[in-house]
Amino acid sequence: MLLKKNIEAVIATVDEIVPAEKKVMVDGKEFLYDFLVIALGADLAPEKITGRDNNIQTFYTYEGAEKLNETLKNFPGGKVGVVVASMPYKCPGTPYEGAMLIEDFFADKGFSGKVEIDPFTREPQPLPVAGPDPGNEVKNILDKKRIRFHPKMQLDSVDTKLKQLFFNGKESFKYDLLVIVPPHQAPGVVKNSCLTNTNGWIDVDVASLQTKHENVFAIGDINSIPLPGRWVPDKPMMLPKAGVFAHLQAEVVAKNIAQTIKGEKAADKFCGDGYCMLEAGEDLAGFAYGDFFGEPNPQVQLKRVGKKWHIGKVLFEKWWLSPVGLKKTMYKNLLLAGGKLMGIPIKL
Ligand SMILES: Cc1cc2nc3c(=O)[nH]c(=O)nc-3n(C[C@H](O)[C@H](O)[C@H](O)COP(=O)(O)OP(=O)(O)OC[C@H]3O[C@@H](n4cnc5c(N)ncnc54)[C@H](O)[C@@H]3O)c2cc1C
Question: What pTM was computed for the model?
Answer without folding.
Answer: 0.95
